[in-house]
Structure formats: structure tokens, C-alpha cells
Please model this.
Amino acid sequence: MRVLLIGFGDVGRATAKILLSKNVEVTAIDTRDIHMDGVDFLRRDALSEELWEEIDLEKFSSAIIALPNDVDALLCIMMLRKKKEDLLILARCNNPEYREKMSIAGADYVIDISTISSQMVISSIFREEAEKKLFYENIHIRTYKIEEGSAIVGKRIEELKDDVLVLAYEKDGKVYESGVIEAGSTLAVVGKMEDLKKFEERFITPGRQ
Model:
């Protein structure tokens, strides 16, 4: 199985690592000279018509578009769909306004990154009561059961300015994205692992002030 990965920034590289771990062959395209062991890299402009004349898309089972610009991603989707009608296309979407446009242009799946922090995902986190990993950008979501004596009790979500993002808290089956955090609630927090550990030591462990 070979996948074409268009865009090799943080999202693209994280995606490539996952694919390689599953023994998937990866060919990546980016205008920057960024290499990774195991990845067949092409330093080219993905919006160039000449590029798609050279590449044999029949060699690929799917394409993942991980470009940071939604307009560029939209144009890329259109070119790929024109070249191969049955190609499976997955696209990264940064602005939800482009989600429908990408689908209409021919993307089979559109990953709306902004939706990650939406009410739907928050509710899912609390239902499953488990740590979630967002492979994009190497970001993690953790849930914490807040006990009496934790430094975070009595603080408002809006007041918490740290290197992590507090998404919401759940209390008695209801999810709140703002308001005062109470003991007995479950908190959902997003951030890098090292920042989450600092946040936990500062606010979550009972007795810490």
C-alpha cells in the first residue's frame, strides 16, 4: 500500500510516522527540503500542473492533503480528482467554512481541525473517560477527576492562562465550557505532554497551592 502525502509540515510528518509504523509506503511532496527516514520525498510545488503530469497516480491507493492553506488544499483536491476519479482523498481543513467546499471539490474525507475542540469531541472524551491522543501536532487530551483540596477548585475556566488549553469540565452529566470548576467534576485539558505534567502538578494534585 502506497500513500501520497501532500504537505510535510508538523501535521504531515506526524501522519507519515503513523503510516510508516503500519508498514505503509509514503511519498511526500513539499516545497521545503524536509526529509524523514523511510519516506520517498519530492521537493516540488503541489499546485504545479507539470508535477501531476509526471506523477503516476495509479501507483497510489490514496492521497492525504496536509497543506496549511485551505485554498491551496482545495486546488490540490480538484487537480487530484481530475487526474484520478477513484483515488481516495483525505484533506486537512483549518477553517470550517472550507469543509463543504473540499467535499464538493472531491475529497472523500475532510478533517476539520477546529472541530477537535468542539462540543461533540468534548462529550466523547467525557463518555469514554480515557486519555486521547491527537497525532496532529503531537498534542494530547487528558481528563482529570477534580478532588477536594485541588488548587483548581473554585477557579473559572476563563481565568486559566497557561501553556495548556482547558476545554471544558463535566459535572453530573452536563458539560460546561465556561464557569467555576467544582470538586467532583471531570476536566478536559489539551496540551503537550510536558506542559500537561506541569499543569497537573500545579492545579490537580490535592494540597498543591
